[in-house]
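Subject line: Sequence and fold of a protein, written as structure tokens
Area: Proteins and the way their chains fold up in space.
Start of record: The labelled sequence and token lines come straight after this line.
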Amino acid sequence: MKGNHSHASLRVAQVGDLVCVRIAGRATVHASVSFKRFMRDQIDRGRYHFVLELSQCQIMDSTFLGVMASLASQLQAATQPNACMELVNGNERVLGLIDNLGVLGWFRVTENASDSSQPVDASSVEMTQSLALETGSREEMARTSLAAHQVLMALHPDNEQKFKEVTTFLEEQLGEDATRS
């Protein structure tokens, strides 16, 4: 099940050791699999410095936020200098969602790109590469969503009550998928 079923657009650029990702539209579970693959690939290539430019991001769902929080927590634990995930130009709604889930502290947040600690203004970087958004298989989406929600619960215990039913449902779904295989 591949294709662009999301309303998100992810554009990327690399400037030196810095990886910039512009997230536009609605960042949902449908974009999470491709985003996670891209970010893991960048980390595997030794890149640990990320700026997510959010000026055009309308909203994020909990799966996408969980993937971001998982990556941000891994970067904070990394021993590489400058390892971090910075959020730039996030609107009040998106930052409020991240804060409501208790994970805003895992990110470096900058109101506008000119205030960023980066030597590059992410807002003005030409993001020439569009990230192909492949939804992935039903199982891969369920695994990504389950892991994202488990991370949100681990990073902020108040999220356990919010996501207990979701994680139980996804665990059951994955169990059913395994018995069919």
